C-alpha cells in the first residue's frame, strides 16, 4: 500500500510535515494492519500509533547516540521495532495537573491501553506499571509509567517537591477531555477531531511545571536522582526502547563504536526479558539562583534495547522485571 494514502500518514503529516513524516516511517516498523486507507474516522489504534511515532521522534531529538544508531539501522536497510516508551511521574499534588500517573493514564485509556502489570521498585521508592494496547499488544508500543512516592522521603524533600510542582499547568483543555471521552466511548474519532486531539496528547509528554531554583534541584538530587530528573524533564519520555533479536550482538557492536552503552545486560528472573541501554544524554537546563538564571548540565533521556523471548504458548513475553527496571533507571543517575 502507498503510505501516502493511509490514515496514519495523514495524522503524522499534520504534525510533522511531509519530509519528517517520511523519515519517521523509514525509521520505524509499522504493522501492516495499522496502514489503513483514509476513511471517515480514525481508530484508537491509529491514534495510538501516531502518538507513539511522534514521541519516538521527540526522543531522538534529545538523544544524539540514538540518532546515530537509528541512522545506521536505516542505512543498513533495517527498521526499529519500537517496544515501549517509559516516563516518570510524581504521586503528589501538582498544581492544575492530575497527580502521578493519572496525568498520563487519562490519555492512555481512551487510546485503547489497559493496565497490564505492576512492578514495585522499593529501592527507588517508586512503583512502575506497564500499559499494553488492547487491540494490538505486540505491534503497538507499550508504556512503562512509573510513580515516585515523596511520602517515603524526608519532610524537607516533600516540601521541595511541593514547591517545584505547585505551578504545574494542565496541557489538556476541557475540549480535549471531551474528545477523549468520545474516543473512549466510540473507539474512533472523526478526522477533524483526531487532527485537533493528537497535538494536545503529545503536549502531555513534557514538563508542565515552571522554572525553579538550583537549590531545590540540589535538594532533590541529594535524596533521589529520579526526582531530580523529573524536576528538569517532567513527563517527557525517559527512554524509548528498540526490540532487537540479539541483544548481545547489539551491545558488542555499540561498545566497539565507542558509544556509552551499559556495562552489563539486565536479565529478568524468567530469563526471557533482557535489557541494556545507552547512558543518558547530557543536556543543558536553566534554573534560578540568587535572582539570576543559571545553566547546568544534567542527565537527559536515553535509548534502550530489549530482547524478548516467547512464552510456552508461543506469544511474545511482553512483561517487564522490577530488577531490570531498577538497573535501567541508573542510566540517568550520574550527571
Automatic annotation (TrEMBL):
Protein name as annotated: 2-oxoadipate dioxygenase/decarboxylase
Principal EC category: oxidoreductase
Keyword field: Dioxygenase, Iron, Oxidoreductase
EC number: 1.13.11.93
Coiled-coil segments on the chain, per record: none
CDD domains: VOC_like
Family in the record: Belongs to the 2-oxoadipate dioxygenase/decarboxylase family.
Pfam families associated with the record: HGLS (PF07063)
Cofactor(s) named in the record: Fe(2+)
InterPro entries, A to Z: HGLS (IPR009770)
UniProt-listed SMART domains: DUF1338
Keyword Transit peptide: no
Amino acid at each position: 500500500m502507498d503510505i501516502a494514502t493511509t490514515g496514519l500518514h495523514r495524522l503524522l503529516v499534520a504534525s510533522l510535515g511531509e519530509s519528517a513524516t517520511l523519515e519517521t516511517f523509514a525509521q520505524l516498523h509499522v504493522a501492516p494492519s495499522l496502514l489503513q486507507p483514509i476513511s471517515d474516522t480514525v481508530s484508537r489504534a491509529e491514534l495510538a500509533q501516531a502518538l507513539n511515532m511522534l514521541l519516538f521522534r521527540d526522543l531522538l531529538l534529545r538523544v544524539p547516540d540514538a540518532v546515530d544508531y537509528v541512522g545506521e539501522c536505516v542505512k543498513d536497510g533495517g527498521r526499529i521495532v519500537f517496544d515501549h516508551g517509559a516516563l516518570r511521574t510524581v504521586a503528589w499534588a501538582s498544581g492544575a495537573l492530575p497527580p502521578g500517573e493519572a496525568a498520563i493514564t487519562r490519555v492512555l485509556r481512551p487510546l485503547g491501553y489497559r493496565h497490564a502489570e505492576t512492578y514495585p521498585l522499593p529501592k527507588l521508592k517508586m512503583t512502575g506499571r506497564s500499559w499494553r494496547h488492547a487491540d494490538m499488544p505486540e505491534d503497538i508500543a507499550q508504556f512503562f509509567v512509573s510513580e515516585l512516592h515523596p511520602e517515603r522521603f524526608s519532610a524537607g524533600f516533600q516540601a521541595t517537591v511541593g514547591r517545584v510542582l505547585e505551578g504545574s499547568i494542565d496541557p489538556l483543555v476541557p475540549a480535549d477531555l471531551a474528545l477523549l471521552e468520545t474516543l473512549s466511548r466510540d473507539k474512533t474519532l472523526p478526522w477533524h477531531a483526531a487532527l485537533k486531539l493528537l497535538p494536545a496528547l503529545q503536549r502531555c509528554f513534557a514538563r508542565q511545571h515552571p522554572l525553579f531554583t538550583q537549590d531545590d534541584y540540589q535538594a532533590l538530587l541529594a535524596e533521589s536522582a529520579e526526582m531530580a530528573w523529573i524536576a528538569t524533564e517532567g513527563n517527557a519520555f525517559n527512554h524509548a526502547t528498540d526490540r532487537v533479536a540479539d541483544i548481545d550482538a547489539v551491545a558488542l557492536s555499540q561498545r566497539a563504536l565507542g558509544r556509552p552503552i551499559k556495562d552489563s545486560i539486565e536479565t529478568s528472573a524468567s530469563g526471557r526479558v533482557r535489557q541494556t541501554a545507552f547512558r543518558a544524554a547530557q543536556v543543558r537546563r536553566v534554573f534560578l539562583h540568587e535572582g539570576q538564571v543559571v545553566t547546568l548540565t544534567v542527565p537527559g533521556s536515553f535509548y534502550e534495547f530489549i530482547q524478548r523471548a516467547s512464552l510456552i504458548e508461543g506469544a511474545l513475553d511482553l512483561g517487564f522485571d522490577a530488577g531490570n527496571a531498577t538497573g535501567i533507571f541508573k542510566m540517568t543517575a550520574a550527571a
